[in-house]
Amino acid sequence: MMSSPAAGGCQSSLVSFVPQEEMLQRLMAMGVTRNAATRGLYYTGNNSADLAAAWIFENQDKDLDAPLELDSSTSSEDDFGEAVGDDFFDDSDLYKMVFVVNTSLKMGIGKIAAQVAHASLGLYKTMVENQQRFGEMLLSWEQFGEMKIVLKGEDAAHLTMLAGQAQALDLPHYVVQDAGKTQVQPGSVTVLALMGKADVVNEVTGNLSLL
């Protein structure tokens, strides 16, 4: 018995997507589920674990852990996809801003958001004030989606150690010490922000998990 044209048309519309295994494993090592990692790679071109991680972080409201189901009408363009387009990028082409949160303080969601915002502004102002040194870096970062990722740090000593590594690699960085008005003690080290080429930043934070 021959298949009906409708059934054949349905079959031909299906699209297969195979994520790069190396990228998939890097994302899973960061604590991302396989399904979420697959989605992140699909929507960012399947070329960069960093882009995929940033997409996952910025799309937490979506059902990321559901299996990826595609058809020929599915578009892979979103905020990052539109910025990256069809060109191939590897980690050495991209800049990212990373925030490492001191999880030992057990801050609430709102407190963490405020501290990350503080770190972001502090680092950005530091770089803007030194355009000769950081202007090109900021321009490249802004041009390709302003990638931002929030990761888990262990404690103040851990963040201080990471800041030292960033300093040794000549990466711009900023450490937030809280005023202690809510939730934490005055002077507590809450967040480390750092920025640079993705592959260089990964030398400092590449083994940390997403918050």
From TrEMBL:
Q: Which GO molecular function, any one, fits this protein according to its record?
A: peptidyl-tRNA hydrolase activity
Q: Where is the UBA domain?
A: 18-59
- SUPFAM superfamilies, per the entry: Peptidyl-tRNA hydrolase II, UBA-like
Q: Which GO terms describe its cellular component?
A: cytosol
Sections of the chain in a coiled coil: none
| Reactions it catalyzes | an N-acyl-L-alpha-aminoacyl-tRNA + H2O = an N-acyl-L-amino acid + a tRNA + H(+)
| Enzyme Commission number(s) | 3.1.1.29
Return the SMART domains for the record: UBA
Domain of life, source organism: Eukaryota
Q: Does the keyword Hydrolase apply?
A: yes
Keyword tags: Hydrolase
Question: Which InterPro entries does this one have?
Answer: Pep_tRNA_hydro_II_dom_sf, PTH2, UBA, UBA-like_sf
Q: Which Pfam families match?
A: PTH2, UBA_7
Q: What's the family?
A: Belongs to the PTH2 family.
- What is the protein name for this chain? peptidyl-tRNA hydrolase
Organism listed in the record: Paralvinella palmiformis
